[in-house]
Every structure is written in structure tokens, then in C-alpha cells.
Amino acid sequence: MERDYSFVRVQKIRRSSLTSASKSNVGSVRMNSRDRLFKFNNENQKYRYRIDSNNQLASSFSKRESQRIRPLANPCKPQLGSAKQSTEYKKNSRRHDLFSSKIDIPSRNNSKKTNWNSQCTRRRCCCLLAALLLFQLLAGMITAMTIMGMQLKNQTTYGSTQRAQHQQHKQQQQVHHRVHQVQAVRLLQAARQQVQAVRLLQAARQQVQAVRLLQAARQQRPVHQLQQHLILVRNYLRWNQTGTIVAGTTLAGSTANQLNEPYCLYIDSNDILYVCDYLNHRIQKWLPNATNGTTIAGSSTGLLGSSSLLLYQPFDLTFDVNGYLYVADSGNARVQRFPPNSLNGTSVAGTGFLSSALNGLNHPTAIIVDNNLNLFVLDEGNTRLMKWLPNATNGSVMIDANDLNSVFDFVFAPGSSNQVYLSDNGASKVRLWTFSSSTEDGYLQIVNASTTTITSPRGLAYDPYGNLYVADTLNDRIVMFCGNSTVGTVVAKYTTGVPTVSGPSGVAFDSNLNLYVSNLYSDNVVAFARL
Fold this sequence. Notes:
By secondary structure, this protein is of the alpha+beta class. Helices cover 27% and strands 28% of the residues. It has helices at residues 20-23, 63-67, 83-94, 110-220, 223-236; strands spanning 6-8, 29-31, 36-42, 45-51, 69-70, 244-248, 262-267, 273-277, 282-286, 294-298, 314-319, 325-329, 334-338, 346-349, 364-369, 375-379, 384-388, 396-400, 407-412, 419-424, 429-434, 442-443, 445-446, 457-462, 468-472, 477-481, 487-493, 504-509, 515-519, 524-528. A five-stranded mixed beta sheet has the order 23-27-26-25-24, with helices on one face. A four-stranded antiparallel beta sheet has the order 6-30-29-28, with no helix packed on it. It starts with 5 loop residues before the first strand and ends with a strand.
């Protein structure tokens, strides 16, 4: 197959250096894509020649000139003389594998060709080896830098972790120290409180022991010492045993100067005497040194009834702070209130009929009105103590005791608002009772008379010194209990031939501490002057 040569102009080729065969081709030389171009220096002249695919020079050279031929600096890219030749060479080189052809030194000697090929191979290997070594070096450097970076990062992370742990440990120590301080303060406070509590408990125990010792001493005190104490009190509080009739006569009647079984009595701050004329169904008023009484509630002639103007067997009376009169209208099962200077009463407790409901009463025998206008009623038929608030329709039960037999009167214990003394007429006792309790707290007795028990007590009263006086009805005497003592002494008793105590039912004192007693058997009120 004929080769496809392209024509390349050869510049300044000396004809004398070419063979006869090549001289005919001067001016144009045919070259295909496999040919190589070389140059040699001849008298500072650069020449370009063609080497065919068989590594033979296309033109004839002298031996001297052929030895002067050397390959281009880059045999794979020979440098061409003109731009046209360079462009044509690049076109042909695209279709040719530069490394697939063997390049030999352009010489007619085969040994020189072999040396040239080996040199190129060695150069190529050296380049590849250098590139490989450079690549390995770069890879090693990159690996080393990566390892160093990882180590540095690990060291940084480890250092940060150590610092964080150290900081956390330090904070924990600080918190522990603070907690320890707080706990120490709390323990100290608790210890102080405990010491104070122990001291208070010891002081309380000492006080309790002292009180118990005092109580034991009082309880163990001989009876004669107590009697001596009572004698001293009696020597200070004594009354003339011969009395004076200040209301009524010795006979029962319904006239203005008579009484018919007077039960309770009341003396105000002006020493005016008020008497419940039980069987005359009226309330009588006696001025000091008066001989006749005045009717202030009920019928003056002794008529009974259930209207607002009449009463039926009144048992007790009292006044409130506003001057209103309250009457325990036992026969009508109600409590009537009368304005000052009025005979027309109004029911404030009870319905007018016997009843055990909260709005009803059954034979009320005693009443008390406190400073707050609370009304306390002793409901003898129902054996209970009731309380009515101002303007209330129903009352509330303060004491409900089935073992009470026939209670007649009551008074509040000194300095107490929920303890009362009750005169139990049927059981012949004076009981001390607490509100909302189902059992009594104690009872009173006497020890300085032949009859050591109270028989059928009725009226109760206090003097300004806090001593309690009891009307011992069936024994015809008045018994005094000093303070909170449970034993009493007789201060007034029945005497023949003179106005005296005869079936006493009520007790009261005037401003001079004179003793007034209402007698059921003699139908009068007798006053005993204080000595």
C-alpha cells in the first residue's frame, strides 16, 4: 500500500550534503504521520530532515553530517520550523500513538539506534519512578498531616474534656461545700430548736409538777385546816341571824303588800327589789323601805292567762343591759320580754305550749341574759340548758343530760363562759357542768353541820367576792362555798320567834352586801344585815 505523504518544505538544505538521489527531491520532501523530524547544527544553521517509518533518513547525508544529527529536546513533540508545518504536524499527530512507535537515533548504525531507545526507555522509567515517588511522598505527607490533625484534634478534644471534667468536678465540690454549709446551718438551727424545746418542756414539766404538788398539798390538807379557813372567811362575811321582812307578810295573799310562794328575787344597782309572785302570777316591785309592792308584769289581782298581758306561774326574772325585763313564764312554757314601764310582753323563747322541739320549752325555771343579749334558759321539764341568740326562732342545746332529775336554777362559774353550776333539786346536789358534755365535772357538799348533805337545793347566787350561795330549801338554811371550794359553811338558818329562813327558794345581795332570802313557807322576803 502506497504511503500518503504530505509535502513539507525543507529550508536551506545544502545540496552538497545530499546524495544524488536526494538532490532531485530538494524543494519538497514527502512525509507521513509516522515520520519524525530531527534537526542538526551545521555551521550555526538549523536544518530539518525527515525520517521515515523505518528510521531511515529521507535524504542522503554525509557521515559527518549524520553524526551531527541529534533528536529534538522532546522527541514526542518535535519543534517545526514554521507555523504551517507545526499545524500540519499536530493534525497528523492526533491520529498517531506517540509511544507505540519506536524512536531510534537517526543513524545508519543499529547500535546507536538501540542505545537511543534504551535511553528513552530509561528516561521514561525514571520519570514514572520519580512521579511514583513524588506521589508516594505526597500521599505520605497527606497521611502524616491527616494523622497529625487527628492527633491534634484528639488532643484538643481530650484537653477540652479534661477541662470540662475538671470544671464540673470543681463545681460539684463547690456545690457540695455549699450544701454542707447549708446542712451545717440547718443542723445547728435544729439543735438550737431542740435545746429550746427541751428547755421549754422541762420548764412546763416543772410547772406541772409544781401545780400537782400544790394540788396534792391542798388535797392532803387536813379537814380542820380547811374548816379554820372557812371560819376566817365566815368571820369576815357574817350576817345577823335575826332578819327583817322587806316584802310580804307572814300570810299568803294577793294584795299589794302580800305574796304567795315567792320563788326568785332580783335586786338592781338602786337596791330595788323584784319578786316572782309564783301563785299570784305576777312580778312585784318593792322600793327600799316600802310596805307595798307594785305590779310590773302580769295581773295585779292574781289572774293567770296566756295573753301578752298575763303570766302563769312565773319562776324567774332578770334584766338585760337595755333595761328590758325577762320573765320565765313556766306555766305557759315561754319566756316573755317586757319593755321598760310596759305591761305588754313579747315571747322571745318557746311557743306557749309544752314542747321538746328546739323552738319549744317545758316548764322553764331559770333564765340569764348576757351582755350580748344571748338568752340562756334552763328547761326543767326537758332536763336541758338552751341558748337563744337575739331575735332567733329556735334555740340550741348547750347541756342535755338525762341523769338530771329536777334542775331549778343555774349560774355561770366565775371567770368562765361555758361552765355552770346547776342546782339539782331532785338529786339534792349542786353540779358543775361544762357545755357540750354528757357528764358532770363535780358537785358540792357541806361538812360543817350535822346534816352533811344539801337537800332539795333551789336558788343560787354569787357575792362580789366570787363566793357561791345555795338555798338549801328542805334544811331551811343558806350555805356559802368560798371560791372554788367544794365544801361550804352555813351563813343563815331557821330561828324560831323571829323573821328567819323558812323554806328558802331564792338568794340575792344589795349594794351593802346585805343578804335577801325569799321564803316559800312564810310567803315573804327576809333581809339579813351584814355584821
